[in-house]
Amino acid sequence: MHAPAMPAPTVTPQVLVLAGSDSSGGAGLQADIKAIHANGAYAASVITSVTAQNTREITTVFDLPLRVIEAQFRAILDDFQIGSIKTGMLSSKSILRRIVLLLGPVVRNLVVDPVMVSKGGTPLLAPEALSLLQSQLIPLAALVTPNIPEAERMTGIQINSLVDAEVAARKIHQMGCGAVLVKGGHLPEKYMRDRACDLLFDGRETTLLRGAYLEGAVAHGMGCTYAAAIAAHLARGAPLVDAVQKAKVYITEALRHTLPIGQGHRPVDHFHAFCPSA
């Protein structure tokens, strides 16, 4: 008598992250990995740069050699079933160019977080790399997730309201991506109630994603965490608007539960739903 056949194992959704390493663990690759796991997917990674940083400042940035970046990428693609890809810190023109060449043939559900400056003000994208980001990487993206300073730099539009944010989102969309999420956290104080509102434009419709405004909440790793959570839900098969909405709820609660770590900007609690902080 034959034993009953075992059911085929369910494949865990898998996300590939290409980003810089944050030694403090609050942002960058480390934040991405935590956010992806907390949102039900598995994170594989390609380290593009190594930073020495804490909650107050970045003291050193070292870009990995292109051959090492490419070797990491090819090793993952040779063995994993990647459902979505998320990019973060791609600091130089040469790194950006190599990433574009690698992603071109295999891109799927690409979320581009156009990291330009750290929370403490350290530049993380070389000025000469911006045009390559706009002309080569953004057209590959299903979603681009700039904050307001990043959207202003990408478009030359000063953003003082949600109306301005939509104008900027439409201009970024014209660069060739599938959709744009402009995050409202940097709106001027007179638009305080809209600071917790993000604007999603998909080329046809504009969706406003409102959340609770948390007075004085400025945390380390918010942008990385938000974009990574979106990528996790895309890998799980969620439609774009649903993926963004679920990630919005997640980042709001992660921001509500910042961790009392370090002397600068506190990191968000990526696992607030599983291991509530004291």
Task: Give structural notes.
- This protein has one domain: UDP-N-acetylmuramoyl-L-alanine:D-glutamate ligase.
- Strand 4 (82-87), helix 3 (93-103) and strand 5 form a beta-alpha-beta unit.
- The chain has helices spanning 28-38, 66-77, 93-103, 130-137, 148-155, 162-173, 222-235, 240-256, and strands spanning 14-22, 42-53, 58-63, 82-87, 110-112, 143-144, 180-182, 197-201, 206-210.
- Helix 3 packs parallel to helix 4 (130-137).
- The model has no long low-confidence stretch (mean pLDDT 88).
- The protein has 278 residues and is an alpha/beta fold.
- It starts with 13 loop residues before the first strand and ends in a 22-residue tail after the last helix.
- Mean pLDDT, nearest integer? 88
Strand content: 15-25%
Into which percent range does the helicity of residues fall?
25-40%
Poorly predicted regions are: none
Strand-pairing-aware structural class: alpha/beta
Overall shape: it is: globular
Q: Termini distance? A: 55 Å
Describe the structure concisely for a colleague.
Helices cover 33% and strands 18% of the residues. By secondary structure, the protein is α/β, with parallel strands linked by helices.
What descriptors fit this protein?
33% helix; globular; alpha/beta; 18% strand; six-stranded mixed sheet; UDP-N-acetylmuramoyl-L-alanine:D-glutamate ligase; three-stranded antiparallel sheet; 278 residues
Topology:
Elements lengths: L13 E9 L5 H11 L3 E12 L4 E6 L2 H12 L4 E6 L5 H11 L6 E3 L17 H8 L5 E2 L3 H8 L6 H12 L6 E3 L14 E5 L4 E5 L11 H14 L4 H17 L22
Parallel strand pairs: 1-2, 1-4, 4-5, 5-6
Antiparallel strand pairs: 2-3, 7-8, 8-9
Helix pairs in contact: 1-7, 2-3, 3-4, 5-6, 7-8
